[in-house]
Amino acid sequence: MIKGIFPTEKFQHIETPFYWYDMDLLRETLNVIRNECGNKPFHVHYAIKANANPVILKEIASYGFGADCVSGNEILRALECGFKPDKIAFAGVGKTDKEIGIGLDHDIFCFNVESIPELEVLNSLAKERNRKARVALRINPNVDAHTHKYITTGLNENKFGINEQDLPAILQIFRNSTHIELIGMHFHIGSQITDLSSFEDLCVKATELQEWFNQQGIMLPVINVGGGLGINYQHPNHCPIADFESYFRLFEKYLKLQDNQTLHFELGRSVVAPCGSLITRVVYVKEGLEKNFLIVDAGMTDLIRPALYQAFHHIENISSDLNYQPYDVVGPICESSDVFGHERLLNTSKRGDLIAIRSAGAYGETMVSQYNCREKPASYFSDHI
Ligand SMILES: *Cc1c(COP(=O)(O)O)cnc(C)c1O
After folding, report:
1. pLDDT digits 0-9 by tens, 57-68
2. Is the C-beta atom of 228 inside 6 A of ligand 1?
3. What is the pLDDT of residues 14-62, one digit of tens each?
4. pLDDT value of residue 2
5. CA distance 97 to 177
6. Confidence at 147, pLDDT banded by 50, 70, 90
7. pLDDT reading at 158 higher than 90
8. What are the Cα distances from residue 296, in Å, to 66, 207, 278, 326?
9. Ligand 1 centroid – CA 242 distance (Å)
10. Domain boundaries defined on the chain
11. How many CA atoms lie within 13 A of 3 on its CB side?
């Protein structure tokens, strides 16, 4: 049994629930990514929305990666934490004038534009400032990511992205606009993608589109394939680092870059999910008629993924070595969906035991809410405890 990775003794006096980040694992992951991209024209923009904790962001920025932002405040946070403006991409279907202004004022690398009206607004706001905005068109490749429907984003009927049919009209807008410059195509087909063949489909589609642009006499220096690489939520101890090697090799093999073209990635989950755990305490062990419940002090307000997308997180008791028993692990919130796991095998547990909900470093802390007037969970880091 692997209990070793958590300093359970040191956790005893910390108020629960809290987020715990294994900074060595984060650095190991960042090293793998940097080594895989090092000798290729590949650039990684970390997706801030996965985890915007300043300690985590500063670590990632220190490796020289860029940032992928989906709000004006994310741009400001990224800048505060050391990301360079010329490595910031800004995506999102509903960028407000204020947010576009933040991007323009900092002269960020690129706006990933998702609609015709957005493109027109961007041009006029850039004109007011006498700037030229660099644009990558977020094109809907109609590729199925084979992932949960709430995190699939690349299908035609999705709210994200521009449909291929609109491209000729968009090129016309660029011809008539003085303050926007087309530099690339952008895609993002979904999240937690473990079937890498979806990315192969994306490469095929990107190549087709690339040829279409070339036929129009346009050479795009930037191809941005978004994020989406999945992690192994089932086995966090055995597979703590996502398969970046296969992932990057796939793009190298299936997407032939043209001269001076760079390939951009916006990885979020795969960078930070494994290094985070939500640590919670058993408040009550409740014996039901047919099953036993572990009622813990963390709830869906602290980690909403199970309630929101029926997501699986490995759960373990880090205080007990006793025999395994099945439990339903549930939170205290007044919602029936406030369940972390059904019929999970955990060491026999008692009131006061510490429970680790694993792989919670992505879309965990950033999605915390204060429903039921709850306090936000604190965060602790393996470097400082
Ligand atoms: C969320 C998002 C990402 C990151 O996705 P992951 O699945 O966490 O890698 C990248 N690009 C865009 C545009 C996004 O919205």
Report:
1. 999 999 999 999
2. yes
3. 999 999 999 999 999 999 999 999 889 999 999 999 999 999 999 999 9
4. 44
5. 18
6. low
7. no
8. 37, 50, 11, 15
9. 15
10. 8-18+274-381, 23-273
11. 14
Q: Is the CB of 188 under 6 A from ligand 1?
A: yes
Helix (H/G/I), strand (E/B), else coil: 264: strand
> For ligand 1, what atom is nearest to the CA of residue 193?
7
Is the bond into 221 cis (omega within 30 degrees of 0)? no
The answer regarding whether domain 23-273 maps to CATH 3.20.20.10 reads: yes
Type of residue at 99: E
Q: What is the DSSP string of 259-284?
A: TT-EEEE---HHHHTTTEEEEEEEEE
What is the pTM (predicted TM-score) of this model? 0.95
Asked whether the predicted pLDDT for residue 148 surpasses 90, the reply is no
DSSP structural state of residue 383:
T
pLDDT the model gives residue 145? 74
Please tell me if the CB atom of residue 153 comes closer than 6 angstroms to any atom of ligand 1.
Answer: no
**Cβ of 190 below 6 Å from ligand 1:** no
- Residue 50 in contact with ligand 1 by CB distance below 6 A: yes
DSSP letter string, 285-308: EEE-SS-EEEEES--TTT--HHHH
The 3-state DSSP class for residue 183 equals strand
**Under CATH, what is the fold of the domain 8-18+274-381?**
Lyase, Ornithine Decarboxylase; Chain A, domain 1 (2.40.37)
Closest ligand 1 atom to residue 362 Cα is 8
pLDDT above 70 for 155: no
